[in-house]
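Structural prep section.
Before we set up the soaks we want a predicted structure of the protein with 5-hydroxymethyl-3,4-dihydroxypiperidine in place, mainly to decide which crystallisation condition to try first. Input record follows.
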Amino acid sequence: MLDRRFPDGFVWGASTAAYQIEGAWNEDGKGESIWDRLTHQPYRVVDGQTADVACDHYHRMPEDVQLMARLGLKGYRFSIAWTRILPEGRGRVNPKGLDFYDRLLDELGKAGILANITLNHWDLPQALQDLGGWNNRDCADWFADYARIAFERLGDRAALWATHNEPGVVASGYSSGMMAPALADATQGYRVIHHLLLAHGKAVQAYHQGGYPGKIGIALDLQNLIPASDSEADRMAAQREIENHHNLWLDPIFRGTYPQHLLEWLGPHAPQPRSGDMEQIRQPLDFLGINHYFTDKISFNPGGGLLRTHSEAYSAPLWGRTEVGWGVNPSGLTKILLKVKDEYGNPPMYITESGTAALDVPDANGFVTDRERIAYLRSHFIAAHDAIEAGANLKGYFVWSLMDNFEWLAGYRPRFGLVRVDYPTQKRIPKLSALWYQEVISRNSVYE
Ligand code: IFM
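Run finished without errors. Recording the tokens verbatim:
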């Protein structure tokens, strides 16, 4: 049996996001977010579910941190609900909101768990959406002001910060009509992308100017996108999707430019930077966070939206699709890590999310024997190790997710957790994968 040993100090962790676990949607002065607004409308989310209670983490936070400690986690990635700190998104600060995250950092500190904070995991304050949200250029400044408040109060204890989580998904909320705020206008979507990038640059600059002890980056969803065939039409289609999902973020952040070929393709829909914007966006980055889940095959489809493409899940031989239909192809992760190494200067990288939903069937005690999830995680840890051996500067791996939670438009059905949440009782029951992960962490290695 081959023992894949990870570098000393490798950060093994787990991730969550505020809206997906906290609940307490309107408690202690919290304001309304665009996800509160969306989920409270009929026929938006499966079965009309909301995250009003979710995993009730807001009230159970100390026990949840103890659970993390028992599992041996070295790091915990969570996001701040902007509306807890600034109920209207700007202006008046809500001290109780800040206190919550302050206490969370203290608990993590006592448990010796590194804190990895995301500022924007999609839950924009509704009051800012009423002013146009990310479509309003001023949102970049509102975000930077919010970030400064968070840095000032929490910056002494947080090791890692990310500005945005999967900002492409945020932008899709303005172009595809599904995720909050559920608008459908392609030009607006690309304007939003530019404003998110500007916001990122401003917040990174503020962090570095503040001289805080931690590091700041961004968490991008970088899935493996491959042409469905060797035809030129499919290869070009895949190229457009790659530029749209990878280069559209990586190029401005690392190089200060937008991908030229994509800009030409988008024509009037393309982002319109003002003078100085690209320099503002291209700030020195301390690390890149990578969220990776699946591989998609891309083909040319004249009816396929602005990019004229069609995407289909691809699974490597012997791997099926996940419970949410995603294609499993572990070597796709190696490929993505090596792409960032080779094309973007090999910055320190963290897998900020990776994991799988599975058909979890609890026994009479609520215990889940989730061998499917273990197989997924093991193969992806090995794929990450392959990339490290090939020189990728990978520093840690945060599994999505610590516990089952509210999976956005799909509600509570998909279960991504290492820990089962029995929602009626809010009982947390570590699954077999959590116990397996505990061992991986303690050995800092994975058996192949
Ligand atoms: O649950 C989400 C998370 O909020 C963002 N990344 C993908 C996860 C699984 O879909």
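Observations: Residues 17, 20, 166, 291, 353, 400, 407, 416 surround 5-hydroxymethyl-3,4-dihydroxypiperidine (CB under 6 Å).
Flagged for discussion at group meeting.
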